[in-house]
Design brief:
- There is one protein chain.
- The protein has 389 residues and is α+β, with helices and mostly antiparallel strands.
- The strands form 4 sheets. The protein has a 6-stranded mixed β-sheet, with helices on both faces. A 5-stranded antiparallel β-sheet has the order 2-1-4-5-6, covered by helices on one side.
- Helix 7 links the parallel strand 12 and strand 13.
- It is globular and about 80 Å long.
Length: 389
């Protein structure tokens, strides 16, 4: 397992995060506009740059002149990140490999700093996935078929929509256990796909996803993508697109002398999810996240690693993480899920900074701050009672 940490200054609402450790499950919680999504977008930016550095190192080790493979970080800034990352921004991302080698990627004074002198045994192949909070649009947009081809709602949504389409090309059926439903892809004329949901108990006939409740419309695409990247996504095809097609394009195949097979690279998927709980009741929120953790950590295939990072407003989800940690410590599980405390990070994003909520000595997440709004309502209620008396 690789270890990662990031330090961010002066990016949007983030003044200084301090060092943020990224684990297989990393959770950000905070108020609206606190910088949660900005932090995640900064993480995915640096992970993507590191992916490009790994590809560059692989080609360099395969006797391909590295000068032909440039990495310009501004080429990877999308949508609002073009404005949020300025010459005053500082971003430092550190990766430590299982061989105890550290690699530093930094953006400072408007320049990218990195070292691509990387032995083959340290090279990993990464897939970065973004699941947009705007995914509730997907069922309606997908129902338009070819009419939706030229529709764009920004880079991050477009990435989400493309991944959903790839997921439902590969997987035609899966369960939505958190709400007692099943999801089916039905292909009609002209290969037009319909997305159907039906209750497990047969209580009513299948309906199209676009006609389902808002909670189902926002979470079914998320579930499809978690299933896809855990089991069906082809790293081989992705590697061919990233490396082999590049060599053909540059007419460099005759110089290609790899000292490791692409199939031998460790394979890691990073999924970055905005608000997994959208439009779900608290009980369903908890079941959904339990299912995501179960799938990502314990039900993957071909040796791949799936890491999850998500931003949330839900104190229910964060409190449930304590239950999963306790289950792991006792050798049990909750709905098939449990969570090693050492593979979890939970941060409160607030006031431009980041606070670690883990109490490491007792394997517990401090959720006291997440109850402040409820406490304030109770205190104001009691004040009114006293004034009435």
């Amino acid at each position: 397992m690789i270890k990662e940490k990031i330090h961010i200054k002066n990016v949007g609402a983030l003044n200084d995060t301090g060092i943020v450790e990224l684990q297989p499950i990393t959770v950000l919680i905070g108020n609206s506009a606190s910088g949660k999504s900005t932090l995640m977008k900064t993480v995915v930016l640096m992970r993507y740059i590191f992916k490009r550095i790994c590809i560059r190192a692989y080609l360099k080790n395969a006797r391909i002149d590295e000068k032909i493979f440039y990495i310009r970080f501004r080429d990877f800034l999308r949508d609002d990140m073009k404005l949020l990352v300025t010459d005053e921004s500082f971003i430092e991302y550190i990766v430590e490999t299982p061989n105890n080698h550290q690699y530093r990627v930094a953006i400072a004074d408007g320049k990218l700093e990195y070292d691509d002198n990387m032995p083959s045994q340290d090279i990993v192949f990464l897939k970065e996935v973004w699941v947009s909070e705007m995914r509730s649009v997907i069922p309606t947009l997908a129902s338009k078929g070819s009419l939706a081809k030229n529709t764009s709602l920004g880079f991050y949504f477009d990435e989400t929509f493309d991944d959903f389409k790839a997921a439902t090309d590969a997987i035609s059926h899966f369960d939505l256990d958190y709400v007692g439903l099943q999801f089916d892809v039905v292909t009609g004329g002209n290969n037009q796909k319909k997305y159907m949901v039906a209750p497990n108990d047969g209580g009513y006939n299948p309906i199209e996803l676009r006609n389902a409740s808002s909670g189902i419309q926002t979470t079914a695409p998320l579930s499809a993508m978690v299933n896809y990247f855990s089991t069906e996504f082809s790293f081989k095809k992705a590697q061919e697109r990233s490396i082999i097609s590049y060599l053909f394009e540059k007419d460099l195949t005759s110089k290609y002398r790899p000292d490791m097979e692409m199939a031998d690279m460790p394979k890691i998927v990073h999924m970055h999810i905005e608000e997994p709980e959208l439009s779900l009741d608290p009980s369903s929120q908890i079941k959904l996240v339990n299912g995501i953790i179960r799938q990502a950590l314990y039900n993957t295939v071909d040796g791949r690693t799936v890491n999850i990072m998500f931003a949330t407003h839900s104190p229910y989800i964060v409190n449930d993480l304590n239950l999963l940690v306790k289950a792991h410590d006792m050798g049990k599980d909750i709905e098939g899920a449990h969570l090693d405390f050492e593979k979890l990070s939970v941060y409160l994003v607030n006031g431009g900074s980041v606070v670690d909520l883990k109490l490491k000595n007792i394997h517990y997440i401090n959720t006291d701050r997440l109850s402040q709004d409820i406490n304030d309502i109770y205190n104001r209620y009691e004040d009114l009672n006293r004034k009435d008396a």
